[in-house]
Amino acid sequence: TLDMKATNVWDGQEMVSESHLTLDGKECENSGMGGTTVTSTAVVDKKAKTITIETNGYADGIGDWTSVQVLSMKEDNLVVAFEAASDMGSITETYVFDKQ
């Protein structure tokens, strides 16, 4: 299993989301924005040494949305390649977390 906690800022409001995922590709449900439910699947690729998480949800003002996160280790840093799309448009970002 993988437990994730993320803090995001949307329209000046800080929002914390927590996800509990299995790593076998089975669909998991977690709480989304505004009391909604999101569904996610997480798959481990041992050869590529990645975890890919696909999440689908709905939020007022945004509509249906989907996101894909690919977690990997590069040079002892956690790298998260993130893509999301909704009726509002799409975004692609890469986050690099170093040890401290």
Question: How does this structure look, described?
Answer:
This protein has 100 residues and is mainly beta. Helices cover 0% and strands 72% of the residues. The chain has a six-stranded antiparallel sheet with strand order 3-4-5-6-7-8, with no helix packed on it. Strands 1-2 form a two-stranded antiparallel ribbon. The protein is globular and about 40 Å long. The mean pLDDT is 90.
Topology overview:
Elements: E1 2-10, E2 13-21, E3 28-31, E4 37-45, E5 50-59, E6 63-74, E7 77-86, E8 89-97
Antiparallel strand pairs: 1-2, 3-4, 4-5, 5-6, 6-7, 7-8
Order of helices and strands: EEEEEEEE
Shape: globular
Q: Given the structure, what is the number of helices?
A: 0
Q: Order of strands across the widest beta sheet?
A: 3-4-5-6-7-8
Whole-angstrom Rg: 14 Å
**Cα separation of the termini:** 25 Å
Alpha-beta classification: mainly beta
Strand content: over 45%
Low-confidence stretches: none
| Number of DSSP-assigned strands | 8
Main beta sheet: 6 strands, antiparallel
| Average pLDDT level | 90
Helix content: under 10%
Observed structural traits:
100 residues; two-stranded antiparallel sheet
Give a short summary of the structure.
With 100 residues, the chain is mainly beta.
